[in-house]
Amino acid sequence: MTKPSRLLPLVTPENEHYWQGGARDELCFLCCQDCSHYVHPPAPLCPECLSRKLAPRAVSGRAVVHTFTVNHQPWIPGFDPPYVVAIVEIEEQPSLRLTTNVKNCAIEDVSIGMPVQVCFEDLGDGVFLPLFEPRA
Amino acid sequence: MTVPGKATTRLERSAAVTGIGQSAVGRRLNVDPLALTADACLAAIEDAGLRREDIDGLSTYPGSMPTPAGFSGAGITEVQEMLRLKLNWFCGGPELPGQLGSVVNAVMAVATGLAKHVLCFRTVWESTAQGGGGRQGIGSGGGGRFRASGFMQWTLPYGAASAAVWIAMMAKRHFHEFGTTREQMAWIALNARRNAGLNPNAVYRDPMSMDDYMAARMISSPFCLYDCDVPVDGSTAIIVSSVDAAKDLRKPPLVVEAVGTAVHGRPSWDQWDDLTTMALRDAGAMLWQRTDLTPADVDCAQLYDGFSFITLAWLEALGFCGKGESGPFVAGGSRIALDGEVPVNTHGGQLSGGRLHGYGFLHEAATQLWREGGDRQVAGEPRVAVAAAGGGPLGGCLLLRRD
Ligand SMILES: [Zn+2]
To answer: How far apart are the C-alpha atoms of B108 and B104, rounded to whole Å?
Structure first.
């Protein structure tokens, strides 16, 4: 199966920890050095304590499917449906969510509450896309 | 989380809707969107019994915007220039509590005396601009060097290139938590089509059955084709006047009884705390904190249906049913029918009437209160109507009252 032709994110100093962590197999988020709150999407300060001491920190990569959809509409040339788009919640913090794809399983096997684990797809240009697959 | 206290002064009541207008609405009209805007604006001015010289305020959503194609058919500057308006106040922009936030702006301008008669408009020409290619994904025209930034960087690389995908996930979560089904949600689309059949200006008027709905192709589960609104070309205009200035106009003023503009959660399509409510929760709660009226007083509800699920969420946000209960509430379609306890989207909504992007709901609320609905007119003498627009992290609503 050929890889889908994905649109790439614009990598900046603010988000490179997220898009490039996959080079080391790490899913990284900004984390507050004062209160340990993970901040995503990246921001210049912690929304909990307003500290500006934020630094990238790797998480376990374990997550749970919060919700999902099976997309059937061809939106992007070369990125062919059907595929699963999901919002997953990262184990380390209930509010730590991201939109992603669930892969390496049959579409009909995806469900809300399903335990998943991060994996990465190398898109070139230094971008490693965090994706999720079923956790054993 | 703080909520706005019970309002003691409700300045919105010093403003009223005094006229409405609409251009031709249709698929691929191939008409200059500014010309459509002129049709709607001049019709609204005439409807109110005003002259163009009386208009001293101008408001629109989202303002001039080159992309997505056809999303904005006209901006403030073009309309002011075209009609040579002498403006005391104007405002156009996208960062508002939903599309009707631009009307709330007009209400505030009138209430504070910055303007006397504000012309509000919203023009779309997505049907012509998108041509025969169907609904487009965001960024799909970007070519090989396109790089997603801002919020889009978190969704486009995953093929989540449309609000259809984002809101489908909200609907799925609602299905999961409350047992809502496609058969229940279908009634938003079926009710809209039933009402569109009585509206000569609606785009899709042929009868639709539950079998038709269930047989339609999926877009993004649980949304099928009929859960998604239909891009059209068209313009809608609304005149907001001060109640003092409204007294001598052609029509009974529709007083703005209350507005809801709150957004307390994170303003994001995927980070919002409770995806089953969207931002509509906060706007709806605020509306009822600014009036002594209750949902039981509402004679018709015109609730945004960019996707069918959004109407379910507005029904809950505005308290027409309890949280999570919108599926059973609409099932069978009798409660939301023209002769039901709360007639919903009496013109056919955007699902069957066409995607006029928010303004169509306020236009229809006024139409019903002025009892100009023709075959689709709600029986009796409706006095109170709610118009609500927006979905995801954007939502705003107005309650209109005819004395
Ligand atoms: Zn902190």
So the answer is: 6
Let me know how long chain B is: 403
Per residue in A43-92, pLDDT tens? 999 999 999 999 999 999 999 999 999 999 999 999 999 999 999 999 99
In this complex, do B158 and A70 lie within 8 Å of one another by their Cβ atoms?
Answer: no
Mean pLDDT of B164-173: 98
| B148-157 mean pLDDT | 95
Query: Per-residue pLDDT tens for B179-190?
Result: 999 999 999 999
Flag whether residue B158 sits within 8 Å of chain A, measured between CB atoms. yes
Say if the ipTM goes beyond 0.95.
Answer: yes
Query: CA–CA separation, B252 vs B49, rounded Å?
Result: 11
Residues B201/B22, Cβ–Cβ less than 8 Å:
yes
Cβ atoms < 10 Å from Cβ of B121: 29
**Residue B40 CA from chain centroid, whole number:** 16
The answer to whether the Cα torsion of B184, B186, B192, B196 is positive or negative is negative
Distance CA(A20)–CA(B233), nearest Å, equals 43
pTM for the whole structure: 0.96
Domains and CATH numbers, chain B: 11-131+162-402 (3.40.47.10)
Q: How far is A132 from chain B (nearest CA, A)?
A: 11
Taking the centre of ligand 1 as the mean of its atom positions, its distance from the CA of residue A95, in whole angstroms, is 14
B90's tokens: 């104007």
* Chain B environment of A7 (Cβ under 8 Å): 139, 142, 146-148, 156-157, 161
d(CA A126, CA A13) in angstroms, rounded, equals 13
User: If you average pLDDT over residues B73-93, what whole number do you get?
Assistant: 97
- A112 close to B (CB below 8 A): yes
- Asked if the C-beta of A5 comes within 8 angstroms of chain B's C-beta atoms, the answer is no
Nearest CA distance, B161 vs chain A (angstrom)? 6
pLDDT value of position B7: 55
Residue A41 preceded by cis peptide, ω within 30: yes
Contact B273/A at CB under 8 A: yes
The answer for B288, left when phi > 0, alpha when psi is -120 to 50, beta otherwise, is alpha
Could you tell me which of B365, B369, B360, B364 has the C-alpha nearest to residue B403?
B369
What is the reported pLDDT for B1? 44
Chain B, 203 to 222: residues with Cβ < 8 Å from chain A are 217-222
